[in-house]
Amino acid sequence: MRIPLKTTLLLATLLLLLLALPAGAQEPVSDDEVNEVAKELYCPVCENTPLDVCPTQACQDWRAVIRTQLAEGRSAAEIKDYFALQYGDRVLAEPPARGFNLLVWVLPVGAVIVGGFFFVTFMRRLQQRTQVTPEQIATAPATSPNGQTLTQDDYVSRVEQELRDQSKS
Amino acid sequence: MLADIGFITILLALIAAVYAAVAASYGAHRGDQRWVTSARNATIAIFPLTVLACGLIIVLLLQNDFSVEYVWRVTSRETPIYLKISALWGGQAGSLLFWNMILAAFTAAAMLRKWDDQRDLMPYALIIASITQIFFLLLTVFVENPFARLDIIPPEGNGLNPLLRHPGMIIHPPMLYLGFTGFTIPYVFAMAALISGRLDDAWIRTTRRWTLAAWLFLSLGLILGGRWAYDVLGWGGYWAWDPVENASFLPWLAGTAFLHSVMIQEKRNMFKMWNMILIILTYLLVVWGTFIVRSGVISSVHSFAQSAIGPLFFGFLAIMLVFSIAWLLYRRDQLSSPNHLQSVFSREGAFLANNFVIMGILFATFLGTNYPILSELVTGEKITVGPPYYDRVNGPLFAVLLLLMGVAPLMMWYKTSLQRIGRAILWPAIAATLFVVLLFVLGIDSAGALLGVWIVTFSAILTLLEFWKGTRARMRGRGEMPWTAFGRLIGRNRRRYGGYWIHMGVLVMAFGVVGSTFFQQETQLRMETGDVVSLGDYTMTFEGVTRYPGPDDLIITEANVAVYDNGEYIRNLQPRTELYTRSGQPMTIPKARSTIAEDFYVLLVNWEETSESVATLRLYLNPLINWVWAGGVIFIIGTLIAAWPDPQDVRVSKAVRAQRHSNISPAGAVGD
Amino acid sequence: MSELDQTLPPLQTDKPAAPAEPAAPPAKKGIRWTHVAIWALAIGFLGLLGWGLVNVNAPRPEAGQAAPDFEMAFFDGYDWEGRSVANLTDLEGKVVVLNFWASWCVECRLEADLLEQASRQYGDEVVFLGVAYVDAEPNSLEYLAEYGITYPNAPDLRSAISDKYEITGVPETFFIGKDGTIAQVVIGPVNEATLHGQIGNLLSQ
């Protein structure tokens, strides 16, 4: 069957339009997508308020900026860089890991490792070579380092020691 | 007139505190008990004076006396009565006065107790307590005077900060203040022991009890703060690692470490130095925290208005830091412990590990909170250290702590065989693994969450087993019925089983934290009347927005939504925004449908002025969030159980007192 | 109780007065490095907090002080003498009116027309500079177009300029003389009398 020329032209135009559409039109950016980026940013003027929950007009404007940029195809990282450039690093939830601020990334982990090393060494040092039994501790005579006669303090300590050992639980 | 009386009252309190410090010093120097007693009476007298001052402020607030600047600042004519009363701690000056009163209450209570076994500590305790009171009273009298007058009397007040106009918010500051000031007393005793050289166990027993009380209040304050943030502030969460939140969390951490390591000192007479350090650290963290909150050095949502207070707090912190370190180092040799650790695998070892992990969390949190100052000093740029840092660093540390919580009760003092532990943990570990595998099969694949659940289940089983083993032993040994055995078990060993109860509370909370952190879902969208949105198993229909005026200068915008769970209608919720037109500050109040499994939580984010049928709504699905609050309740109950006096303590004090009374000559009689 | 009596010597009461002497002093009086480290940490920490306190309470640049130098990267179409970037020092010899504003700032709109008119009135001798504080660029440009602003405007990148001038909010205006000294700081919208009076004053110097 022969297709009339007008119809062909119409179909061709429609086809071209359909092909052109994806390049031009885009799905509107959802609030959730905006919030996903805004969640990782802080409001530049409020104190310590994340950008996705801040209710002020200024914050709404900034979320609109995020929306526009997302619509332009920018990634979350690019948007965060943009905000940092505009308003300073304090709008980021964490300082960028470069320069001096590497410290905030390295120090806690380092401290736990170094601390752990010291802790293990400390525990080892505390452990005695010879076994000290509970009975030995209970019956040890209560003499002070200088050989002083017992005073009230030592008396109390001994009473406590006795009671402690009587009710070992 | 009343304001003048009020000012004179606090001025008298300050004078009394100064007198107490001087008299106690003189009495200590001369060995004259009369001066010390006089100082003690002066200290006790500060309490009724501060109560009177607080009472007068409340009267002024209720009378709408706007000639007094503080009254103008925090109330207005339409403020309801209960809020006018709570406005006592609604602003900087009032909250400082309130703090003074609570501090005076604790100090007076400490001074009124029986001192016979610790007479030589009293003068120094008085001096330290007085110094703290002098500082805070100085602030109230000279810098932030709540009785200060305005030259022109305004016709109407400013009104209370909208954020503070909610019932949940009313109880939060008092609880925190009780916790903070409560930690002063253990510090006072510790420093008195250091200065007097009386470094036996007496100060530890006293400090432990006061620390537990302060720790109870601080825990309550923290939990309530989280609940209020969730219920009222409307951001779907309960803890943001904000600097001011951290300021109240850090003393709590140090206190927790102390409450554990003190048990080693009591049982094995070890780690005196470390316990001393922990108590001092707790107190200094309280002072540092107050400095941070009120000076504006670190930016936070909680910031108070700045004034001369910052430098004064800094000076006080500096003095107390230097003073504490100096005495600690001076007495260092006397604090060395005679005992040694027999084995790492012992209860001592477990407590030490507990302290190590808690110190790790403390250091990480402290570093994160102070870091912005350091960074600005070095780079010139302001930065923020937010939740990602804390989650990354503290998360694993908390996990280890929870694991320790389950395993430690299995350890014996001195030494435990690995075999014994291995046998005890075998089937709980298997049970936890099975549970986690089940969850995995049901579709939960987040590694962090699964690990968290494993640890929580494992430790919870072990902790519950402790209760079971003890109850069963009583049932078999004494033939008691189950509930009697259970009740007596806890009653006779309050500290131990109260402690396990607290652990259960923590584990329940941890379960809730894992659920609500790893599996929170949210969505936000613009809706028109009749629109439906779904989140998880829930669907929600938007039914419209209404606006109406409220009391004061309030305008309420309220959305009406219908909530369906799995298609079944549950009920309607009305999340709203409250706008106080004078201050221009909007508050977003969420509404939620709560079940054991989760919260379906709705916020009104935006609306259009001219329409009643359009709104932007935000929905959260918070799984297991109510386990956090339930765990909190369990936690507090456990603390109350643990705080009851231990029979063993009573026996020791009685024994000592009995011996002393029979051996002391009349000349040196110990009276009260 | 009686067992304790038998095993322990009789009690001696202590004088509660003087603090007890420490145990026998260490034989070797070397420097205890742990002590040094502890003190160093403590002093260091206090120093950090002290600096933070000073920084937070830092006084703003006041009248009579030299105006802090800064760099401006102008908005497109709002440059100064064809240059897209300029420093404050480049404007030495001219009177400078430095105005901080933001598109979300309601009070800034009260002075916008006034500033624009004044900028056209005076010749090259007086330079009006606008700095958009913590603002989103599309909104800033919209604001400038709305009021028909023609004088140079720049975004306050990284809030560097507002940090240096320690502004407490917007709008704030700094009048800077030919020698680079601040003559006056106005917090809030500028009124006509102040604007013309101060410019006249600075021009005659």
Describe the structure.
The complex is a heterotrimer of chains A (169), B (672) and C (205). Helices cover 60% and strands 0% of the residues of chain A. Chain A has 169 residues and is an all-alpha fold. Chain A folds into two domains: 27-94, Cytochrome C biogenesis protein (Helicase, Ruva Protein, domain 3, Orthogonal Bundle); 101-161. The relative contact order of chain A is 0.06. Chain B is of the alpha+beta class. In chain B, the strands form two sheets. In chain B, strands 2, 3, 4, 5, 6 and 7 form a six-stranded antiparallel sheet that branches. Chain B has a four-stranded antiparallel sheet with strand order 1-10-9-8, covered by helices on one side. In chain B, helix 1 runs antiparallel to helix 2, helix 5 (92-112) runs antiparallel to helix 6 and helix 14 (387-407) packs parallel to helix 16. Chain C is of the alpha/beta class. Chain C contains six helices and seven strands. Chain C has helices spanning 2-7, 33-56, 108-121, 137-146, 160-164, 192-203; strands at residues 71-73, 85-87, 95-101, 126-132, 153-155, 172-176, 182-187. In chain C, the strands form two sheets. A five-stranded mixed sheet of chain C has the order 5-4-3-6-7, with helices on one face. Chain C has a two-stranded antiparallel sheet with strand order 1-2. Residues 1-28 of chain C have low confidence and may be disordered.
